[in-house]
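Feature request, filed as a ticket because there's no other form

It would be nice if the structure record came with a short human-readable summary line next to the tokens. Right now we just get the raw output. Example of a typical job, pasted below so the devs can see what we mean:
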Amino acid sequence: MEGILLGLGFIGVTLAILTPFIKSGMGLTLVSLAVYFWFIGIETWLPVILFTAGLLLIVFEIFVPEFGLAGIVGIILLISGLYLTIGDIGQTVRDLSLSVVITSGVVFYLIKNGYSLTNVNKLILQTNVAERSADNDSDADKQSITERLEGEAQTPLRPSGKVTFQDDPHSYDVLSVDGYISKGTKVIVEKVKGTKITVRKK
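Raw output as currently delivered:
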């Protein structure tokens, strides 16, 4: 029961990141985790604080995956918060493992159905969107994007982001078929379908 509640909390975070249902996802997370800690019973707020800080750091790592340390510290704090709440390392591992399995299934389902980190990238890349709207260059100045065209990632692709191609100064919205690709990585166009451009590592 506890593992399922914890899993629902993680699923809420997943929905908030991968789908447009941000408020619903955050609501599910808050309710599920509140019920989880109430069900387990807490004597102090320290475990909740540690767990919350760990979860926030993990989410931060999703926004800035190249940072690295945030994710590691986040996992340590999250596990510490759970352990201090439960007081049993075995049950802590069981609850966390069950929640991770459930969440992984949901993530796989969402990705299979076309969801990605687009919502995250909208927040990260909103300044680029503003710059583009202020740019007076017309689309006619942009080169035609074709398959096998080589370029370079101007932002991390998570899996969507910005890429420039050859001598063209304009940046293009693309989707990586290889998942996460670091900024500065050489890429090659895999497929072009309308305005959708998919790329992979060169």
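Something like this underneath would help us a lot:
Helices lie at 2-18, 22-40, 46-63, 69-86, 89-112, 118-124, 126-134.
The first strand starts at residue 150 and ends at 153.
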